[in-house]
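Researcher: Re-running this chain for the archive, since the previous output was lost when a drive failed. Same request as before.
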Amino acid sequence: MWLLFLPVVWWAGAITACAIKPDTNLLQILQVLTEKLDQPFSISYTPYTMRCMFTFTIAYVSGIGIYYSQKRNYRRGVEHGSAKWGDAVSICKRYRDKRYTQNLILTQNFRMGLDCYKHKRNLNVLVVGGSGAGKSRTYAVPNIMQCNCSMVVTDPKGGARRSSLKRTGTSQLN
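Model: Regenerated structure tokens:
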């Protein structure tokens, strides 16, 4: 199919070659090319004809090569994004560590491994919510109970500390 346009490319090269003369600048070449395009089939052979046709052919083949080498992930219909991301099981498999205790618990179904180099994700977490939203109960306490890393937990009322002490059966957290 691409070969059908090759005569047009050669014609454009021959017309351009007719516009090129020694000691002319680009502006003069463009003016002569405009005049030549008024009579598109008045082509004459010049010393520049073969060079121009070859240059135009190389540019045409390069353009086709670039067209075919591009990754075509257009995602028709979802150009502006989609809410579909994936199910929790497949995403958890990608980010979790096989050893259960070496994970940061983020939700009931999603855990992220503590080895940042493996999954290339940051492990810094900021939990924000109003009073009584379950920040300590659903995030801080389960991760504290795993005792798998150092943590900084701001707990002004001390609820997370008290519940952690009850669960571990000790009188002090280190």
